[in-house]
Amino acid sequence: MPSVHKVAVLVGSLRKASINRKVALALAELASERLKLEIVEIGELPHYNPDLEEDVPPAWATFRRQVADADAVLFLTPEYNRSVPGVLKNAIDVGSRPYGKSVFAGKPAAVISVSPGALAAFGANHHLRQSLVFLDMPTMQQPEAYLGNASGLFDDSGRLANPSTADFLRKVMTSFEAWIDRVRK
Fold first, then answer.
1. 46 with 60: CB under 8 angstroms?
2. For a designed S-S bond to 125, which of 8, 113, 147, 184 qualifies (C-beta 3.0 to 4.6 A apart)?
3. Rounded to whole angstroms, how far apart are CA atoms 76 and 88?
4. How far apart are CA 121 and CA 105, in angstroms?
5. CA gyration radius for the chain?
6. Is 170 left (phi over 0), alpha (psi -120 to 50) or beta?
7. How far apart are CA 43 and CA 60, in angstroms?
8. Quick check: bond before 58 cis, omega within 30?
9. Which whole number is the average pLDDT over 87-94?
10. What are the extents of the domains in the chain?
11. Distances (CA, A) of 62 to 23, 45, 57, 124, 160
């Protein structure tokens, strides 16, 4: 049997009722048994400051270890001002430093942008991809995953209620699984 891949999931929204977190939870259910998705929390990471490398904050150490232990990284992001939220950018900075010791380098990645708006966080998706190039993260190109008007995709209990969206997300996860296999050969 092929190996199971541990996937670190970084959710760029801290809201209690975050649509991005709901999508992340739905993806964990829709993915095959070969993908073990685990949300890595980023909300309590101190802002990146190189001076803190002298006595690394425990939250940084935990975050770095969780991402380093993963086989791949899945990013879910809303869009703030045509870019990613500051909390997600901070997590990227924390994980990519100190220079030469990035926990992201070489890990297969995928980006899903989720928004209540019609543009589906297109700008954030592409801005994030620019950072992933620098981080040396081979990023899945197809299928592209933009979920717009996402507020209506879930029922009152927070479960995915739209069958066509579930089918699309299942396809994304199948493609991501194949991407991870290809990159990690």
1. yes
2. 113
3. 9
4. 25
5. 16
6. alpha
7. 11
8. no
9. 98
10. 5-183
11. 24, 10, 9, 26, 30
Residue pair 20/78 in contact (Cβ under 8 Å)? The answer is yes
The answer to whether the pTM exceeds 0.85 is yes
The answer regarding whether domain 5-183 maps to CATH 3.40.640.10 reads: no
Q: What is the mean pLDDT of residues 150-166?
A: 90
3-class secondary structure, 8: strand
Rounded to whole angstroms, how far apart are CA atoms 102 and 163? 38
Tokens of 100: 């030469």
The DSSP letter of residue 34 is T
Cβ atoms of 37 and 7 closer than 8 Å: yes
Percentage with pLDDT > 90 across the chain? 84
| 136 φ/ψ sector (left φ>0, alpha ψ -120 to 50, else beta) | left
